[in-house]
Amino acid sequence: MSLKSIIARPYATWVTDKVMQRAREAGETQLSVLRRLVRSGSSTVFGRAHALREVEDHAGLVQAIPLRDYEGLRPYLDRVVVGEPDVLWPGRPLYLCKTSGTTSGAKYIPITRQSLPNHIGSARRALLSYIARTGRTDFIEGRMIFLQGSPQLDRTGAIPTGRLSGIVANHVPGYLQGNRMPSFTTNCIPDWETKVEAIVTETLNADMRLIGGIPAWVQMYFERLLARSGKATVHEVFPDFSLFVHGGVNYAPYHARLTALIGDEVPRIELFPASEGFIAYQDAGHEDGLLLVLDNGIYYGFLPLDGQADRPLSIAQVELGKHYALVLYTNAGLWGYEIGDTVRFVSLDPPRILVTGRTKHFTSAFGEHVIAEEVEGALREAMDAYPCTVTEFTVAPTTAPEEGLPYHAWYIEFADAPADQGAFASAIDSALQRRNPYYRDLIEGRVLRPLRISRVLRGGFAGWMKEHGMSDAQSKVPRLANDRRYVEGLPVSD
């Protein structure tokens, strides 16, 4: 056992105990964060315009600051991007995180000297929590890889600019530098498919212990790895692979395929990172949700999706089981920022959440408001009844078919298709009706007919994403839309 492993266990226990103590005092912890934020932000252009100096508590904060998405905050962000200091946060940001997104193009999210530790330190906490909970440090002894964007950054004016994962790659702690793969040169390859092939070449004979990334891209890496090695499973290639770290999307649709590729179950940690801040991480069993990061530069607001409140609630006001849109106030200068994710609390002491979808990713062409949690749950239930392996899927409304009633169109790429696709589709539809009573009423009232599946050709989603400039380590297939923007051009077999 190395010195790193010997030190890691007591240090992990100390850090985790400290985090849990603050989590169990969530209201007080968050109020301290709020006061530090408004104290620092009060002298900025935004702070003076919104009288932040007078804000003392949650009620004052939500009264002073209206909710905004990126476009709403853009008049301030545009000034930050051109290098003007003291606009949203004191000074200028260290980085601009470029992410795809708005109707008017890319988004540029500031990362400040104060917010950078949130991104790096919270990921470290997740690993330390795993060590404290399990006592396992074997993953420290070998190589590790996070499939990520290029660490080679561009510049927007004088500010270094890149993808979040590429920015963070420049701040890997020194004690892990000897473990990390791939090389800087390989990590900088711009074309994702070329990059994956180069990563396979570098890692094929390595002692890989920890592998991380968005599930879809890890799946691609595993498939290329097995094709190159001629082995049947990843565990035959990497017998000591012992920890899988993932985030960005719901893992459930990928579980069967990734388990088959790996060869068996492997311990895993789910993360909830975002360009706007590191929100939460798994600190217990997978069914127990993700622990909110409460003490690291983010104050949270929770806007009820049931319309019961028109202003965000505090952590002390939320309830179990209800759905909330997530609102952030951060030490990167995001104030009342609607991140676009929806969450549901599964524990209040300490606060743990499940990510249930995106505020802009839903299907409600007929008033049903179907969300990601519902379609993913329905698909998982059908896969249990009719064994198959799904590579990717998305759902869109078909509002004006050539004949018959409208329906939900499910575009699914199978690695292994179900024996009876018709029965599989019926199982999804029945499960979705149980989860969403509005959808059930539309089916029973013959406003809609049951869903229909279109089988996407193998590699179809990857090709579509590459064609639309989304083939990198941080891009994800949207699960739902209220129109057909994500399905036009997908190659299907029927």
For the termini, the CA-CA separation is 56 Å
**Stretches where pLDDT falls below 50 for ≥5 residues?**
none
Largest sheet: 11 strands, mixed
The strand count comes to: 18
- Report the total helices: 17
Q: What is the helix fraction of residues, given as a range? A: 25-40%
What number of domains? 3
Write down the Rg: 23 Å
Form type: globular
The proportion of strand residues reads 15-25%
What is the averaged pLDDT score? Answer: 90
Structural class: alpha/beta
Largest beta sheet: what is the strand line-up? Answer: 6-3-7-8-9-10-11-15-14-13-12
Write up this protein.
It is built from 17 helices and 18 strands. The chain has helices spanning 3-23, 26-41, 45-49, 58-64, 70-81, 116-134, 164-169, 174-177, 184-187, 192-203, 215-229, 234-237, 252-262, 372-385, 421-435, 437-444, 460-467; strands spanning 95-102, 105-111, 143-146, 154-156, 159-162, 180-181, 208-213, 243-247, 268-274, 277-282, 290-292, 298-304, 323-330, 337-348, 351-358, 389-398, 407-416, 452-455. An 11-stranded mixed β-sheet has the order 6-3-7-8-9-10-11-15-14-13-12, sandwiched between helices. Strands 2-1-5-4 form a 4-stranded mixed β-sheet. The model has no long low-confidence stretch (mean pLDDT 90). It is an alpha/beta fold. α10 (192-203) crosses α11 (215-229) and α14 packs across α15.
List keywords for this structure.
494 residues, alpha/beta, GMP Synthetase, Chain A, domain 3, 3 domains, 11-stranded mixed sheet, 4-stranded mixed sheet
What is the fold's blueprint, element by element?
Blueprint: H1 3-23, H2 26-41, H3 45-49, H4 58-64, H5 70-81, E1 95-102, E2 105-111, H6 116-134, E3 143-146, E4 154-156, E5 159-162, H7 164-169, H8 174-177, E6 180-181, H9 184-187, H10 192-203, E7 208-213, H11 215-229, H12 234-237, E8 243-247, H13 252-262, E9 268-274, E10 277-282, E11 290-292, E12 298-304, E13 323-330, E14 337-348, E15 351-358, H14 372-385, E16 389-398, E17 407-416, H15 421-435, H16 437-444, E18 452-455, H17 460-467
Parallel strand pairs: 1-5, 3-6, 3-7, 7-8, 8-9, 17-18
Antiparallel strand pairs: 1-2, 4-5, 9-10, 10-11, 11-15, 12-13, 13-14, 14-15, 16-17
